[in-house]
Amino acid sequence: MPDKKTAIVTGASRGIGAGLVEVFLNEGYNVVATSRHVSQSLTASPHLVLVDGDIGKQETGAKTVEAAIKHFGTIDVLVNNAGIYRAKSFTEFTTEDFNALVSTNLLGFLYITQLTVKQMLKQKSGNVVTISASSADQPIAGDNGSVSMITKGGLNTVTRSLAIEYAKEAIRFNAVAPGVVDTPIS
Amino acid sequence: MAVKDIVDAVLYLSQAGQVTGEVLHVDGGAHAGRW
User: Fold this and answer.
1) What is the pLDDT of residues A67-124, one digit of tens each?
2) Which of A49, A53, A67, A82 could be a cystine partner for A10, CB 3.0 to 4.6 Å?
3) Domain ranges in chain A?
């Protein structure tokens, strides 16, 4: 068993994803980072492997998981951070909007999480964290993210389902639901 | 809401061996009600 733990981060080129890559490296993890053009934003190193690709495509999930196992031997943490958000009046949402949201937010969760769980079952341990949205549970007037929230609510729900399905195999599933800039605290 | 706030929550969950099935809101309390 390798000394260092390994984390996969999706949507890694900017924002929360880029912050996660930096912190996991600082904490002594090996990291596999993926996003459409992550190699243009981050620089690979002995402890950081980059995989370019659309997370809504099965091959991107496969390449990322294979890279983690080949380079580092285990997958201890998967952070499903890749996500898109579209806001408009409910009646204005199109099939293209719906399909784009489902592809990145749901298929992007499904493919890489399935492959990661197969590896975690071999390890008999693992931790999956999915970035959701606070407004999936408590909508904010004027945000108009209705169809986007179909996907975020789905991610919260599947997190609970998988936590139960894999509890006996010691694979944990949690979600983090970020809020917006305007909060009761601020 | 800063990137660091979310990253800290993910790091916590990575070390929290008894926490699973949780949706951890990092939103300054927005999910709790009106303000």
Assistant:
1) 999 999 999 999 999 999 999 999 999 999 999 999 999 999 999 999 999 999 999 9
2) A82
3) 6-176
Q: How many whole angstroms separate alpha carbon A101 and alpha carbon A93? A: 11
The fourth-level CATH superfamily of domain A6-176 is NAD(P)-binding Rossmann-like Domain (3.40.50.720)
Shortest Cα distance, chain B CAs vs residue A53, angstroms: 23
CA distance A107 to A58: 8
Q: Give the contacts of A142 (CB within 8 A, at least 6 positions apart).
A: none
Q: How many residues are listed for chain B in this entry?
A: 35
Q: Give yes or no for A139 touching B (CB within 8 A).
A: no
Q: Which of A134, A172, A178 sits opposite B19 (nearest CB)?
A: A172
Q: CB–CB of B30 and A160 under 8 A? A: no
